[in-house]
Each structure stands twice: as structure tokens, then as C-alpha cells.
Amino acid sequence: MAAVQLDHKFVSTPKLVEPASAPKYVESALDYVVPEIPHKQAHDEIFDALRKRIEAINEETCEPGDENSFFVCDIGEVQRLYNNWHKRLPRVQPFYAVKCNPDHRVLAKLASLGVNFDCASKTEIEKVLALGVSPNRIIYANPCKASSFIRYAAKNKVLKSTFDNVEELHKIKKYHPESQLLLRITTDDSTAQCRLSTKYGCELEKVDELLETVQKLGLNLIGVSFHVGSGASDLSSLYKAVRDARFVFDKAASQYGLPALQILDVGGGFQFDTFAQSSLVLSDAIDEFFPTESFGNLQIIAEPGRYFAATTFTLAVNVIAKRNLGEQEAMIYVNDGVYGNMNCILFDHQEPTPRTLYHNKQFHYYDFDSSSTKKAASLPHKVSMWGPTCDGLDCITKEHYMKHDLVTGDWIYFPNLGAYTSSAATPFNGFEQTVDTIYIESSY
Ligand SMILES: Cc1ncc(COP(=O)(O)O)c(C=O)c1O
Fold it and tell me: Which residues carry out catalysis (predicted)?
């Protein structure tokens, strides 16, 4: 990787009210580091799985639903992403955010690699425990939990959890006093794809109330957590969040006499295409605010979801209908959409990329330029693409330009569709909630 000049001189001690402006080196890191793709997608294996499945379907005679959309999941990609994580953030122990994609085989692979888990609910905890994972490898990272779920965590010895309000501390005192608590602080996530700090996190100005309550109730505070927003793009917020966490570490010890905090939880928000930069910014912020000389025993953890799930899954959908609007303009209807596995368009602000997979009895998997949102001479067919429900909201793309004149029976695929897709699919209009997943394990 290109050497990056880091200029630390401008960094002042954390301020409570007025956060420092983005450190210069964050911008210079973005300038100098060539984005590194941590994985080389296993195209041959993915294509082979897609092809075999489609070749086995006879459009004319198949049973209803045999031509349903389906996923190809590459377990080898999980391994590659893990290797890359380990290489770039060796000090940071990942706790995979199960909510992002709770696929059983993905969870099992991550567990076998030694990755731990961030669970948001009783069901997610149950799912992870059922894999044989010890409860001390789970963080219940939901700052507002139902009392019955807190009791469930207590019963199952899940000790680590996050909180951001006084009321939660009273519930925890009552139902799970042995909890090991991480105080979640807010971040500046204004540029993230999905903001989280609008809902969760305590502002620095208000942590006193929480620290006081921890002290008064005799609870066990072990660390600080944050999340810079899912699909975060402003890396300076990562830097500022680490700085703010240090502020809470210092305050807890110096003003409230609490035992030294042991865990820094840097949350999620990592993406494969910016990971080289974000890991660099994070490592540097950790070195600056939690230097090993003073924080040798500090445990640093993270809650990545999207990073491990997005590129692991490819979705294939069937063209079920077409409405011609002109010679080279049409509405294309496919059998999955925003109420199904492409709910990420609504909830996660994703813009899935359609590519022609099968047209005119031929496969076009490797035609990576078979579509674009921009008009081009090589892409003469203007389409809008729609899901199968009767709702007008069920639109995958309003305008795309395609190389091929798609017709009923053709197949389209969407790469990188594993994050926040199947986990929030609904059976609205009677369309199946879960579709088949074909697993491959490409070489690492
Ligand atoms: C508490 C918490 N941790 C981790 C994640 C995972 O975030 P990402 O998929 O952006 O890594 C989320 C996402 O909503 C979250 O709410």
C-alpha cells in the first residue's frame, strides 16, 4: 500500500461540546490510498452454480415457483473477507452483526473462523447459541431491550450488552445485574447510507447522568461503543468517535472512580470497497487515543455486518412479464422485488445493479457491462424494472439501459446482494419469503 503521511500535530485533546474538524490525515489517506479490493470474486464458480440451476428449469413444464429467484452464496468469500480483516485490523476482534444476514452457513463459517457475534434480539441470540457458540462470544448490542429479553440473556449467560439511557440501567439492575455493560455514544453519521445515531447513542454532554447511575446502582461498566452509521462514507466520523470514546474512558475513571474500562467497541459501518481506507483511519485513531503503552490490555471489538455479507451473495431473478412502451423501451417485471429480497432499495437505500444472465437461450454472465443507468450506444434498450407484487412502489429501477432486449423467461442477476436483503424480505402478496440458496465454497 502507498505510504501515507500522518500529521498528528493538529489533534487536540477531546473537547466536550465542540468537536474538532476532520483531521487532515483522514483526507490525505483518501487521496493517497488506492482502493484495494479485498476479494477477487469467484466468477467461474458463481457462474457455474447459476447456470446449472437455470439449465435444470424447463419454463414450459416446471411446477409453479420452480423458476423463483434464488441466491448463490460463496462461503469462500467469507474466508477471503475474514483474511483481509485480520490483515488490516489485527487488533480488532469482529462480532458479526447477525441482523445483516442470518444465513446459517455464513454464521457457521464465521463461528469456525473465531468471529464472534452481535445479536439484536432473543431470536438472534438463540440462533447463535444453537451453533454451539459460547455466550461469552455474543454481545447483545441493542441499547433498548424488552425486559423479558434481558431475562432471557441473563438465563443464557449472555453478559455483554450495550445501553444508552438511564431507564435501561434500571431494567438491567433488576433483571441482569451481572451484565458487562458498554455505554453507546452518538456519532456524526449524517453522511451514512443508514443513520443510526438519530435513534441510539448518548451525546457526550449527557454521559454524566449515565455514569452517575452506573456508579449509584453498582453496575459493571466495561467499555464504550459507537456506530458511525451503516454504509458510512465520512471517515472522519470514525476518527471523532474513537476520540469521544476516549473522553468517556477518562471521565469514568477520573470523575466517577469507576474501574478502568476494558473494551472499545467500534461498531459497524465497514464496506469492502472502502475498507483499506477505513481500517487505516481506525488503526491510526486507535494508536493515537488508545496507545498500547497506556492501553496494553484494552480489548477492541467491532460489529461488522455489511462487510461480511454484501459480496458473499448473488441474486438471480426471472423475467416474468414485459410491457413494451416503444420500439426500444419497456417495463420489465421480475419475480423478486422491494417486498422480497430487494427490500434493501427501500430500507437500506441500495441501488442493485442488474446484469443480463440468460437471454436468447444464451448465458451472458461475463458481460459485466450489460447494463447502466447511463445511456450508451452499446445499451439501446431503455427499461424500468418492477417486482412481482401489485404495489406501484415495487420498483427496482426506474431507468436502466440494457444491452439485450429482455423478454419473458430471461434471467437477470444482481451481484453483491447479501447485506440487508433476505433478512428483511416479506411474503407480501403471497410471494415466498425465503428463496433457495445454492452454496459454493470457492478457493481462497
Ligand atoms: C448496533 C449495530 N451494530 C452493527 C450493525 C451493522 O452495521 P453494518 O452492517 O453497517 O456493519 C448495525 C446495523 O444496523 C447495528 O445497528
Answer: 390
